[in-house]
């Protein structure tokens, strides 16, 4: 591929990105011929000049991976050719696809349906699947059916959020651990849903209840950046009582959600978004009334987080993550490789 890059990643250094990494991104992008254009100052880039699929060359895959690590979320337009198989095949170039610990896939073995009519609207800031220790490294989301208006997705840079903290708050965050669970208050999230829909969703999503203790600050295994690890699966800060725990979570979560740390994407059919699930939170805006919105997600295996003190995340309950109905258990395949 010979398309010249107009990568802007290296021109400035935003919090949560580094000059070294940005230069590496530019070089890799130039070599592969893809174009990486930043969307916002701290997060998000559009990649053009590539047709996603399972047959991409190693150089292009390396350039995409470097762009995801540097920009936290990258977007591709006009990928209408992707079907479930090609979506999964492309995912395999970034790592090992994994099944959701509790939610069965809709069609295609690893392709999870994110559908407006399944009761699973994601209008809460969250990082995918943080209720297990080795939660996914990457998520790859593809737009299949879109509403006539609304239904945008927002992402926030949790490395930039950490970097902007004052030094005493960084020290405090470094010292904390928090308990995440998939059992949370569904009624609060979906006040408009029928009780049958809520019950069905609760039954499937929490067929196993997980409790995992993560460090509040995770050292990113690829970039070395420190990222805040919170989101709506957090129940409490370990060892801190109720109100203090809520206040602490809110204190740090507010920094993550600051508009300067976010990007908002207006989906078109054929769009693909890839995000670094270890350095972001995201939020699906629920403003499309009853119109259909169907996205397909393939998630790529991650490793067990490590805090700034070197301590790993620990599974509190159950005693082990049950094997999924197919494929490797989360964290089983690339724990050493990533
Ligand atoms: Fe999500």
Number of helices: 8
Separation, N- and C-terminal Cα atoms: 27 Å
Protein structure class: alpha+beta
How much is the average pLDDT? 86
Structure report:
The protein is 24% helix and 22% strand. Strand 10 and strand 11 form a beta hairpin. By secondary structure, it is an alpha+beta fold. It is globular, with a radius of gyration of 19 Å. It contains eight helices and 17 strands. Strands 1, 2, 3, 4, 5, 6, 14 and 16 form an eight-stranded mixed β-sheet that branches. Strands 12-8-9-17 form a four-stranded antiparallel β-sheet. Strands 13-7-15 form a three-stranded antiparallel β-sheet. Helix 1 runs antiparallel to helix 2. The structure holds fe (ii) ion (FE2). Fe (ii) ion (FE2) binds next to loops.
Topology, please?
Layout: H1 19-32, E1 35-38, E2 45-48, H2 58-71, E3 73-76, H3 84-92, E4 97-98, E5 112-115, E6 138-145, E7 153-157, H4 158-163, H5 167-174, E8 177-181, H6 186-189, H7 195-205, E9 211-215, E10 217-219, E11 226-228, E12 234-237, H8 242-257, E13 262-265, E14 272-276, E15 280-284, E16 294-300, E17 314-317
Parallel strand pairs: 2-3
Antiparallel strand pairs: 1-2, 3-14, 4-16, 5-16, 6-14, 6-16, 7-13, 7-15, 8-9, 8-12, 9-17, 10-11
Bound molecules: fe (ii) ion.
Fe (ii) ion (FE2) is lined by residues 122, 126, 128, 282.
């Amino acid at each position: 591929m010979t398309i010249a890059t107009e990568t802007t990643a290296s021109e400035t250094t935003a919090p949560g990105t580094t000059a070294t990494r940005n230069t590496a991104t530019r070089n890799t992008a130039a070599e592969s011929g893809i174009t990486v254009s930043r969307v916002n100052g701290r997060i998000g880039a559009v990649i053009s000049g590539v047709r996603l699929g399972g047959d991409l060359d190693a150089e292009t895959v390396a350039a995409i991976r470097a762009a995801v690590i540097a920009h936290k979320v990258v977007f591709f337009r006009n990928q209408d050719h992707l079907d479930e198989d090609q979506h999964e095949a492309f995912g395999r170039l970034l790592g090992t696809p994994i099944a959701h610990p509790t939610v069965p896939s809709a069609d295609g073995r690893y392709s999870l349906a994110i559908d407006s009519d399944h009761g699973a609207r994601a209008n809460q800031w969250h990082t995918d699947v943080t209720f297990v220790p080795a939660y996914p490294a990457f998520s790859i989301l593809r737009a299949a059916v879109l509403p006539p208006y609304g239904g945008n997705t927002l992402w926030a840079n949790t490395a930039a959020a950490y970097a902007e903290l004052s030094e005493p708050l960084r020290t405090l965050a470094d010292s904390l651990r928090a308990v995440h669970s998939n059992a949370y208050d569904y009624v609060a999230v979906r006040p408009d849903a029928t009780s049958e829909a809520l019950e069905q969703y609760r039954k499937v999503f929490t067929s196993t209840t997980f409790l995992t203790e993560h460090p509040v600050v995770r050292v990113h295994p690829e970039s070395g950046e420190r990222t805040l690890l919170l989101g709506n699966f957090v129940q409490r800060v370990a060892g801190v009582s109720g109100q203090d725990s809520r206040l602490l979570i809110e204190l740090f979560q507010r920094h993550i959600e600051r508009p300067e740390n976010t990007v908002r994407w207006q989906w078109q059919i054929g769009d693909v978004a890839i995000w670094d699930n270890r350095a972001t939170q995201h939020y699906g805006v629920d403003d499309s009334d009853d119109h259909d919105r169907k996205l397909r997600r393939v998630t790529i295996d991650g490793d067990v987080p490590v805090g700034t003190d070197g301590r790993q995340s620990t599974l509190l309950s159950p005693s082990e993550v049950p094997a999924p109905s197919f494929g490797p258990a989360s964290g089983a395949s690339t724990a050493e490789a990533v």
